[in-house]
Every structure is written in structure tokens, then in C-alpha cells.
Amino acid sequence: MKFRLVIVFAIMAMLAVWFLPTPSATANGGSSDDATFTGYVYDTKGKLVGPITMPHVVKSEDAWRAQLPSDVYHIVREDGTERAFTGDLLENKREGVYSCVACNLPLFASDAKFKSGTGWPSFFREIAPGNVATEVDNRYGMRRVEISCARCDGHLGHVFEDGPAPTGMRHCVNSASIAFTPTEEVMTLADPAADKFARRQSLSSAVIAGGCFWCVEAVFEELEGVEEVISGYAGDVKASANYKAVSAGKTRHAEAVQILYDPAKINFEDLLAVHFATHDPTTLNRQGNDVGAHYRSAIFFANADEKALAEAFIADLTDQKVFDKPIVTTLEPLTEFFEAERYHQNYVCDNPNQGYVRVVAMPKVEKVRKLFKDRLKDKGDS
């Protein structure tokens, strides 16, 4: 199989360069504001597409004040409420979409709007799962559930359990928090995230783990045919897919990467060849000084073909005695891949002078540049 001979030389050339501490969120300069959400947006054809993982829109309050009229700012950013029966969208009966006034995320559709008699636009459901966020609101001596835009955290209103069938819910929304777009113009809500989603749909995907995802991401980003590499988590549920929990060893997740690639230019076995040449698959739950099950070597197979290819590849390496020790790479069914916090993405490229990057990640990058010259995006000398 292609590339297997080069693996023998790759392993013989592998050096131990592990002496820096495990990277932390603090060292990376990350913050909770860097989180992502998963929702739906419109494409240029006016079709709602997703689910798509997107970054939150985070701005300073000064920036929001400059963008929004003062009355809108008070409601959207300061959790204000417009007076009942004063909103200009209360009696709107046209067919179309209601989106966030601050970031244009679609939130509600006209087919879910109903007359509640409360004095505010009301909807019995959101337009798509994930676009409307909820949080318990205990202010003013009462318990309510606040609703907000999932992308920019803009205040919308509250949701109550006194709506009509089929949901029984009433999303009570300030007119000032939403903008209306008629159905015939909904393509004007086209979001750049939809183009990215379409490109991803046309590619094949592989999920692989082998130590710190910064390193693994940087290695695969070098390869021709690899369109995108996303750092994230695989092996456990969404609720625990965050760096704080994973790095503390409190989950079954591994730090993993999702590789989106063009199968006409590079195939799954090619990716396996590069992976086994650039990490140590014989150390259980560790890569150098990065220790813990979240640093395990793993292939998360999406189907039976990927599993069979990975099994055959590992068996071949074992038969050739490429490694002095048994390969401990796990083959695990892929249930779902969760994108990591934004500050983890493209970390090596964005932080070339960071200590861990220089000593641990860059030697791996240099290795792939040396061993797979004919497979690089930049065929020039490195």
C-alpha cells in the first residue's frame, strides 16, 4: 500500500522532544467568549441548511452601541423590554422569517407566529434547533426562562409553557430584537457559514487522535487534498466536549481532529500513513509528556470500510515489525465529533513562537514535510 515503506524510515527517525508541560487554556489565551454554537443558516438559494458549528459573535459593548440604536441596544444588550402593544412587528401577518436584529441569525418563521393577546410577537417554536438559546431568569422575584440569540447572545424575551399545539410553547419576543424578511427576499439572509457547510458536504471526512490536537492538526494541514482540519473532541457526549473537562481527564473524549479531504487527491490510507509516521502509536494514553486517556492514539471509524482499512493497516505494520512495541491505537466507532473552542483552531499557524509549538509541534510538521514531499500543498523545499 502507498506510503508504507516510508513509515519504516519515519519511525527510525522519530526523536523524543517531549519536555514541556501540557498546554492549558490559560497559556493559549482562550476565554469562554471563544465558544461555538451549532445551528442553521440560509444559503444563497434561500434554503435553511445545517447543523453547522459556528463561532459566537463577540463584540465590545462600545461596538454594540455603535451598531444598534439606543432603544434597541437597551433591549438586546441590557435585557430590556418594550412596552406591550408598541412593537412594530406585533401585527405583522406577512410570510417570511424573523432574524436577530444584531447578527442576522434566523430565529423564527411566520408559520409559527400566533396572536397571543399578550402585547408582544409570539411564536410556538423556533425556526431550527440550536438558534435560540435559553437560560433560567430569576430576576424580579419570579422564575422565568429567558430566550436569546444563540450566536450573539442578544436578548429576545422569554418562553412560557402556555402556547398552542403542537408545542405548547410561547416564545414572547420583543419586536426590537428581531428583523423581518419576507419569503421572497429570504436569500438576502444568506450566511457565509452556509458556503462553508456546502464545501464540507462535498468532501470526505476522517477523525483521528494522536496526542495534542494542535500537533495533529498542524501535520495534516500540510497535505495536498486536505481542505480543512478541525481540532475537537471525540469519544463521549456533547455535554463534556469542552477543554476544561477533557484536559482534566473527566471524560471519555480524546483530543482529536476532523480531516476534511478530497478523495480524488488523497485517500483514507494515505492519511493513516502520515498519521502513523508522525506520532508514537505504542504508548498507551500518552504522547511524550502529554499523559492521559484524552491523549490516546485512536482512529474513530465512521463506517465498516474505514474500520477494515485501519485494521489491515495496523496488521501490516505489525507484520513488518515497524515498531519495537505493540501498537495500542484504538479503533472506536465515531458517534459524533465536537469542534473545540475557537482559540484551539489553527493554533500552530497562529502561534509559531509559543514554546510547546516550537519544541513539540514543529518537529512533527518538519517531519511530514521531509517524508511526504510529494504530498505537500507547497511542493517547494521546506
Folded structure, characterized:
The chain has 382 residues and is an alpha+beta fold. Helix content is 26%, strand content 25%. The protein contains eleven helices and 19 strands. The strands form five sheets. It has a six-stranded antiparallel beta sheet with strand order 5-6-10-9-8-7. It has a six-stranded mixed beta sheet with strand order 18-17-12-14-13-19, covered by helices on one side. Strands 4-3-11 form a three-stranded antiparallel beta sheet, with no helix packed on it. It is elongated. The N terminus is likely disordered.
Tally of strands: 19
N-to-C CA distance: 26 Å
Shape: elongated
H-E order: HHEEHHEEEEEEEEEHEHEHEHEEEHEEHH
Radius of gyration: 25 Å
Mean residue pLDDT: 90
- Number of alpha- plus pi-helical segments: 11
**Helicity level:** 25-40%
Strand order of the largest sheet: 5-6-10-9-8-7
* Strand percentage: 15-25%
> Largest sheet at a glance?
6 strands, antiparallel
Which class best fits the helix and strand makeup?
A: alpha+beta
Low-confidence stretches: 1-33
Helix and strand topology:
Layout: H1 4-13, H2 25-28, E1 36-42, E2 48-55, H3 61-67, H4 70-78, E3 96-100, E4 106-109, E5 113-114, E6 122-123, E7 132-137, E8 144-149, E9 155-160, E10 170-173, E11 178-182, H5 192-201, E12 204-210, H6 213-220, E13 226-234, H7 243-247, E14 254-261, H8 268-277, E15 286-287, E16 290-291, E17 297-301, H9 304-319, E18 330-333, E19 337-339, H10 347-350, H11 355-371
Parallel strand pairs: 17-18
Antiparallel strand pairs: 1-2, 3-4, 3-11, 5-6, 6-10, 7-8, 8-9, 9-10, 12-14, 12-17, 13-14, 13-19, 15-16
Helix pairs in contact: 1-8, 6-11, 8-9
